[in-house]
């Protein structure tokens, strides 16, 4: 299953969106114009705008408000990625140099601010206050989730409940905002909007667990193997493994990560420990439960081409290789 096949019901709208997205970043500052051009050229799969369009098409006819919702989502998402690269001191993003690697942190932060404010103005200029609220809440939660994860990384005292709170805020909140914004752009039925928000949240949870599983792969897929361990991020496979071992082993693994998380020998030891403890199988089971919940929600909504594509998008999220 490819993204192109999933896009089929909204193929023409996606083409229009690309021009709309470029226009939303228009500026008279040459340096900024150069950087935004670079951003557009290295865009990813644009999964979040696709969630917006398919959610709208599921419940009604796509409108100009839908296009504004998609552009708003992608502007805010791109802004958070630019800022994340500064926070993480990352030099690469999707196989390209990051903005901070090419133009340094000060400019990257300002570019992120520009993208964020462009999104807010897009909503305000079109009186889309409902969309503005949905996305503003998502950005607030993303910031809170990131800070909570940083706080917990210092002590490595995270449990499953805290982990789920972090990924709901960091990742699922924006996908939930994408699906609910798409719904809001075509209907005032709050029950349907809430169903779409919940759908987005559940598939967002599955998306992040899948991303965490990549860290334990045998090769670098999407991100270097073991990078979460090196950054002392407590993800579900590791949390499960630590909670299901003896006290001595748990203390040893935690102390090893605290003292020397970037040491390749430590990273390998942690990966082997998680695999042998059933951490990957457990995380996969939890991911599949979120997938099943997302599909269950879709079964209560209109059965049409958009619904079929959303089902395929759920499978794509679960089975993707990067």
* CATH domain topology: Farnesyl Diphosphate Synthase
* H-E string: HHHHHEEHHHHHHHHHH
Number of helices: 15
The quaternary organization reads as single chain
Q: Stretches where pLDDT falls below 50 for ≥5 residues?
A: 220-224
Task: Describe the protein.
The chain is mostly helical and 322 residues long. The protein has one domain (3-319): Farnesyl Diphosphate Synthase (Orthogonal Bundle). It has 15 helices and 2 strands. It has helices spanning 3-7, 11-24, 30-41, 47-59, 64-88, 99-125, 129-155, 160-184, 190-214, 227-230, 236-243, 247-260, 264-276, 279-298, 305-319, and strands spanning 92-93, 96-97. It has a two-stranded antiparallel sheet with strand order 1-2. A hairpin with a 2-residue loop joins strand 1 and strand 2. The longest helix has 27 residues, at 99-125. The radius of gyration is 20 Å and the shape is globular. The two termini are 14 Å apart. The relative contact order is 0.11. Mean pLDDT is 90; it is low at 220-224.
């Amino acid at each position: 299953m490819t993204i192109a096949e999933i896009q089929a019901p909204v193929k023409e709208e996606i083409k229009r969106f690309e021009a709309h997205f470029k226009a939303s970043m228009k500026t008279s500052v040459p340096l900024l114009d150069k950087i935004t051009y670079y951003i557009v050229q290295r865009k990813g799969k644009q999964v979040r705008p696709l969630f917006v369009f398919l959610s709208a098409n599921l419940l009604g006819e796509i409108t100009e408000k839908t296009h504004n919702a998609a552009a708003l989502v992608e502007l805010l998402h791109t802004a958070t990625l630019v800022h994340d690269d500064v926070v993480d001191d990352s030099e690469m993003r999707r196989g390209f140099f990051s903005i901070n690697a090419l133009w340094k942190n000060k400019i990257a932060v300002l570019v992120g601010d520009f993208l964020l404010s462009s999104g807010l103005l897009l909503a305000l200029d079109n009186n889309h206050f409902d969309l503005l609220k949905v996305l503003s809440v998502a950005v607030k939660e993303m910031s809170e989730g990131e800070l909570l994860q940083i706080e917990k990384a210092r002590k490595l005292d995270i449990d499953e409940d805290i982990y789920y709170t972090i990924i709901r805020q960091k990742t699922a909140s924006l996908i939930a905002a994408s699906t609910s914004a798409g719904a809001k752009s075509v209907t005032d039925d709050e029950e349907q909007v809430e169903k779409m928000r919940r759908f987005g949240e559940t598939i967002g949870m599955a998306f992040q667990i899948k991303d965490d599983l990549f860290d334990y792969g045998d090769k670098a897929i999407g991100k270097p193997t073991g990078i979460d361990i090196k950054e002392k991020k407590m993800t579900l496979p590791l949390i499960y493994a630590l909670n299901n071992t003896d006290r001595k082993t748990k203390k040893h693994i935690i102390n090893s990560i605290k003292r020397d998380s970037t040491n390749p020998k430590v990273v390998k030891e942690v990966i082997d420990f998680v695999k042998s403890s059933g951490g990957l199988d457990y995380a996969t089971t939890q991911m599949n439960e979120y997938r099943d919940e997302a599909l269950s929600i879709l079964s209560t909504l209109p059965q049409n081409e958009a619904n079929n594509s959303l089902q395929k998008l759920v499978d794509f999220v679960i089975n993707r290789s990067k």
